[in-house]
Amino acid sequence: MTAQRFGGAGRSFSAENASLNLLPGTPMRRRSLFAAALLCAIAAPPAWSQAWPSRAVRIVVPAPAGSSLDIVARLLAEKLKDRWGQPVLVDNKPGAGGMLGVDVAAKAPPDGHTLALGFNGPIAFAPFLYKKMPYDPAKDLLPVVMTTSQPNVLAVNAKLPIHSVKEFVDWARARDGKTNYASLGQGSSAHLTMALMMNEAGFTATHVPFNGSPPAAFAVAQGEADASFMTAPALLPHVKSGKVRMLATSAAQRPDSLKDLPTLAESGYPQVESLAWNGLFTAAGTPAAVVSKINADVNAALRDPTVVALLDSQGLTAAGGSADDFKRLLDADAKRWGAIIQKAGIRLDQ
Questions:
Q1: pLDDT tens digits, residue range 158-201?
Q2: Helix, strand, or coil here: 134?
Q3: How many whole angstroms separate alpha carbon 47 and alpha carbon 41?
Q4: Best label site of 10, 59, 138, 261, fewest CB within 10 Å?
Q5: Which pLDDT tens digit goes with each residue over 223-280?
Q6: Of 308, 315, 303, 238, nearest to 275 (Cα)?
Q7: What is the arithmetic mean of pLDDT over 333-338?
Q8: What is the pLDDT of residue 34?
Q9: CA gyration radius for the chain?
């Protein structure tokens, strides 16, 4: 009988060699059984690549229920549970500018069963804002896939006599620092975009941080805050009720979901460009094959027409792409905003 061989150029392994040459002095039957077991181990892929996920997958959302992050996570969870044959649990853990939730994934076992839906603040901005962080984004986390991106929207309380960016800037200048603005938290994209806007437009305002977009949007709707920069999903219910007015987007070009709003560039402030992205991260050390599987399955979910339509209705744009694509975006975002943060002298742990 011809011996079956395994291996690439320059090396081979045969069942005949295994049964005759392994463990000299061992009875033939035992040597044959050993050889068979060894061949199975060589031929079979690693157990984790076959079994993943072997239990429920947890998506930690570092923002409250009703936020844009929460909407994205729950849409993906609904699609991925069928692909993975396991429950996909959404776990909201807001706090510390998003670092509380991201830290959960950074310290989880590196097996892909715990993911965090991270965003600009706790990933790209925080290293420039804090001297100490509970994790190192570059060392403790692996970017898996970008899920959505969306511009921030400049919005004001609808009772204010403001219907354009120019009117907002003129009004804020005239109030000489008495204007206030809500954000999603210290060091959030909302916070830094308004800081950039103030620097470019030449006015001052008081920062009022909230724990996520729903309470920040509610504060603007109730008149507790005059204005805010944030993504559209949390604003839209208040826009529809007539309590909040959206003025402009911070995208370079008008997104399809907000095509009736001018951009800040069109309004005279081309430097105030800000995209709020989000994406999935897992603990460093997670096997590459697991990262690749999650990436592929999330990309497939993001191409689903139902998911695309639901995201679009919330002012969100499905992203996707490779893990390497996502990492390049992270590096570029950190470089750009790091320079802005340092120039503005913003520190949150002094």
A1: 999 999 999 999 999 999 899 999 998 888 888 999 999 998 99
A2: coil
A3: 10
A4: 10
A5: 999 999 998 888 999 999 999 999 999 988 888 778 889 999 999 999 999 888 999 9
A6: 315
A7: 90
A8: 47
A9: 26
Q: How many residues does the structure list for the chain?
A: 350
> What residues have CB less than 8 Å from 177, skipping those under 6 apart?
204, 205, 206
Q: Which two tokens stand for residue 179?
A: 């204007």
Torsion angle of alpha carbons 104, 110, 111, 113, nearest 10°? 0
255 neighbors 249 (Cβ within 8 angstroms) = yes
- Reported as half-sphere exposure (CB side, CA atoms, 13 A), residue 120 has a value of 29
Type and span of the H or E element at 201 = helix 189-201
- pLDDT of res. 82: 94
The predicted-structure confidence for 213-222, as pLDDT tens digits, reads as follows 899 999 999 9
> If you classify domain 153-258 with CATH, what class do you get?
alpha beta
Domain ranges across the chain: 53-147+277-344, 153-258
The CATH number of domain 53-147+277-344 is 1.20.120.530: no
Query: What are the structure tokens assigned to 304, written together?
Result: 């689903």
Instruction: Spell out where 251-319 has E strands.
Output: 275-283, 317-318
Residue 21, pLDDT score: 44
Angstrom distance (rounded) from CA 272 to CA 111: 39
- Terminal C-alpha separation, the chain: 77
Query: What b/e readout covers 198-218, taking b as 16+ CB neighbours within 10 angstroms?
Result: beebebebeebbbbbbbbbbb
Compute, in degrees rounded to 10, the torsion defined by CA atoms 203, 208, 212, 217.
Answer: -70
Q: What residues pair up with 192 in beta bridges, in sequence order?
A: none
C-alpha 195: how far from chain center: 22
CB atoms < 10 A from the CB of 277, how many? Answer: 21
Q: What are the distances in angstroms from CA 172 to CA 169, 195, 196, 214?
A: 5, 13, 15, 24
